[in-house]
Amino acid sequence: MTDSGTTDTPNSSVDLPLPATGEETPPPLRVNRTRKGIHAKEAPSSQADLDDAALYFNRELSHLQFNIRVLEQSLDPSHPLLDRLMFLLIVSSNLDEFFEIRVAGLKHQLASFHEETGADGMTPARVLSEVSRIGHEQVERQYRILNDVLVPALEEQKIRFRRRAQWTPEQAAWVADYFEEEIAPVISPIGLDPSHPFPRLVNKSLNFIVELEGTDAFGREGGMAILPAPRSLPRLIRLPEALCETGFTDYVFLSSMIHAHAHEVFPGMEVEGCYQFRLTRNADLSVDPEEVSDLASALRGELLARRYGSGVRLEVADNCPDSLIDFLLKQFELGEEDLYRVNGPVNLTRMMAVLGDVQRPDLRYRPFTPGLPKPLRGEVNLFSAIRQGDILLHHPFQSFTPVEDLLRQAARDPDVMAIKQTLYRTGADSAIVGALVEAARGGKEVTVVIELRARFDEADNLALASRLQEAGAIVIYGVMAYKTHAKMMHIVRREKGELRHYAHLGTGNYHAKTAKLYTDYSLMTANDELCDDVHKVFQQLSGMGKPRKINTLLHAPFTLHKTLIEMIDREARLAENGKKARIVIKCNAITEPKLIRALYRASQAGVTCDLIIRGMCCLRPGIPGISDNIRVRSIIGRFLEHTRVYYFHNDGKHEVWCSSADAMERNMFHRVETCFPLLDKKVAQQVRKDIDTYLLDNCQSWELDTEGQYHLRLPGDAEPISAQETLLYAYASQA
Question: Which SUPFAM superfamilies match (predicted)?
C-alpha cells in the first residue's frame, strides 16, 4: 500500500480483543464480527425457497457492522494518527443518526403495536435486543481505543487532553477566569422541586445532573439539579500556548470546566456530585402527504419538534451513581438496555474540532490536487469540450470544479436560455447556488427542484430555497410522497439558430465539500437521447401527467427496479446457455429482497457476481447451491465510497450504468432516482477499469462470509494494493 501520510504509530496489532466469541483462541483484532455475526443461521439446502428468511441478514445489524469496520480504521497504523482519531469520531456521529432514526423507528413499531419484519424474519424486539448487545460491546470498545491507544499516541505527538487532576496551577487559574467570564454568564441551572419539574432537554445536548446538600436562600432543602451546558460554547477549548509545556498543544473539555466550578453555580450549597449525560431522541420527521398543503411550512414545524422527540438512548458518565441513573431512565421512560455508561465525554463527535485546530500535516493524509481529464485542462469553453464527447469525472480523485464551472459559464453565457437543477444536499452558500442565483437575476429561466426532506439538511434546504426564490428562480419541492434524490442538471443553449441541450448526471450531491471526501462519478454530456430524457424527468417533476416514455435513462420509481431485475435475469439466461455472463454492482447498500433474489438466481445459473457494498448488505453470500458464485466486499478507507455502478457483461456487449440509487427499497420505490448508461466506450472502459481496481484491493477490502462476519483481506506474499491509493495516484496530482 502506498503511503498517504506519516505516523509514528508502530506497525503492529493492538491488544484490544473483540468481545468473546466462544472460541478457544481469541480472534485477531482486525476481524469485523460479533458473537453471532449479523444473523447467523444454518445454511439452507440448494433447493431452498429463495424467500427463506435464513437467506437474509438483518438490515439494522448489518448497519452496525459497517460502523464496526469504520472503528477498525482507528487501529490501522497505515492511516495517519489524526485521521485514525477522525474514524473513531465518525463512529459516534454515525451511531447518533442510527439511534435517532433506525432505533427510534423500531421502538415506534413496538409502541404502536405495528410490528414489521423484513426478509430476514427478525421481529423488532429481537432486533432491538441485538442492537443493544452489539452497541454496548462496541461503544465500550470505542472508548477503550480512545483512552488506551489514541490518547497516549497523541500525547507522544505533544497533543494532550488535560483532565482536572492534570491542570497546573496556572492552567487552573486560567480555567477559573474562563468560567467566570464565558460560562457563568450564560449557564442556567435548574433545581428540581415541585415548582421546577424536570426540564425538556434538547436532543443530544450536553447536560449535568447535580447532587446537592444544604439549604438555599428560599429555605429549600438540597436535592438534585440539572445543569444544561450552554450550546453556544465550544465543547473543547485550547489552552493558551504560554500555559503549556514547550511544544505541547493542550485542550480541556467544557465538561471538565463545569465540573470544576459547579459549586459556583450553587453558592452556599454543597455539590456532592456532578455527572454529565446526554439524551438521544427520535429525530425522524413525520409529514403526512394527505394532510399537508404547504410542505415548507410543515417541515419548519417538524424541525422544532425533532429537538424534543421521545428518548431512545441515554449516555451517562460511568462514575454516575446508580440512583441518579435510575432517576434519569425513569424521566426519559427508558430501560437498562438503552443506557450507555461511557468512560469519557458523552459526545465524542465534538472532538472533531481538534482536526481543524491542530496544524500538524505530518499527522494527516498528505494533500493532493484533484486531477482533470485532458479535454478540461487550461482555459476551456465547457460547452465546446462536451460537444466533442462525453466527459466523466471521478471525484475526489478528479476535480469537482468543472461541474461548478459549467453552471457558472451557463449563468453568464448570453446564448443559454434555461437551466434546470436538482438539489438534495448542497448548502445555501455554495458556488452551485451562487451560479443559479446569478443566472436567475440575469433573466434566464431557472428551475430548481429542491428536496426539502434531505435528512438533517432540511433547515439548510429551506434557506437555499428562499434565496433562490428571492432571485427569481422557480423553486419546486419535488413530489410529495417521493424524495427527489436524482442528481441532474439540464442546460438549454441556442447555437447557430437551434436549441442545443447539455446535461450533467451524477452519483453524488452537488456539494463541493463532500466531493473532496466522497467517491462519486459525474457525467457531462451533450448526447441527444440522454439530454432529452433528463428534460422529460424535469418536466415530470414540475408538472403533472402520466409517466413519460423515457428511452435511455432508468427512472425510479417507474423503470429502475424492474429493468435491473431484467438485466440480472438476462445474465442468468446467458450463463445457462453457455454464454459469457458476469455482474458487478458497487453501491452503498443492498437490502431490496427482489433484487437479492434475482442475484441468487443468477448465482444458481453460474453467473459470477461481485458486489462491492460499502455499508448494509442483507444478501448472504457463499451458500452452496444458492449464492456460492457471489462475493461481497466492503471498501473502507480515506474516502467514503459513494459511487453507484451496475455492470453487466452481456456476452461481451458490456453495459455500464451509474446511478443516484442504491439497491434499497426506498431508492427503488419511494424516491425519484436516475440510472444512466455510459454510452461512450472510452468512458465506460474507464469505469470498468476503476471497478477492477477495487476488486484487486487487498489492503482496505473487507470480505463478507456466509455467517455475517467481515474479514480484512491481507496481501500476504502478494503486492499490496489499495484501490483508493491506486486511483489517487492515477488521477490526481500529489502536492
Answer: Phospholipase D/nuclease (SSF56024), PHP14-like (SSF143724), PPK N-terminal domain-like (SSF140356)
DSSP 500-524: EEEEEEESS-S-TTGGGTEEEEEEE
Contacts (Cβ under 8 Å, ≥6 apart) of 287? 295, 298, 299, 302, 453
C-alpha cell at 579: 454464454
Tell me which of 485, 511, 555, 649 is the catalytic residue.
Answer: 485
HSE-CB of 329 using CA atoms within 13 angstroms: 16
Predicted confidence (pLDDT) per residue in 548-598, tens digit: 789 999 999 999 999 999 999 999 999 999 999 999 999 999 999 999 999
CA angle 335, 139, 356 (to 5 degrees): 125
The more confident residue out of 466 and 699 is 699
Q: How far apart are CA 348 and CA 88, in angstroms?
A: 9
Angle between helices 295-306 and 458-471 (to 10 degrees): 150
Residues 6+ apart with CB under 8 A from 70: 87, 90, 91, 94, 636
Cα distance between the two ends of the chain? 19
Question: Percentage of the chain surpassing pLDDT 70?
Answer: 87
- What are the phi and psi torsion angles at 451 (to 5°)? -90, 100
Q: Are 700 and 722 in contact (CB under 8 A)?
A: yes
Examine the pLDDT at 302 and tell me if it is beyond 70: no
pLDDT of amino acid 11: 33
How far apart (Å, rounded) are the C-alpha atoms in residues 132 and 315?
13
CB 84 within 8 A of CB 75: yes
- Known binding-site residue numbers for ATP: 94, 518, 614, 642
CA atoms within 13 A on the CB side of 118: 25
Are 162 and 174 in contact, with CB atoms under 8 Å apart?
no
Coil, strand, or helix at residue 463?
Answer: helix
Which residues are known binding-site members for Mg(2+)? 425, 455
Residue ranges at the known binding site: 94, 425, 455, 518, 614, 642
Exposed/middle/buried for 505, CB within 10 Å: 0-12, 13-18, 19+?
A: buried
394 counts as catalytic: no
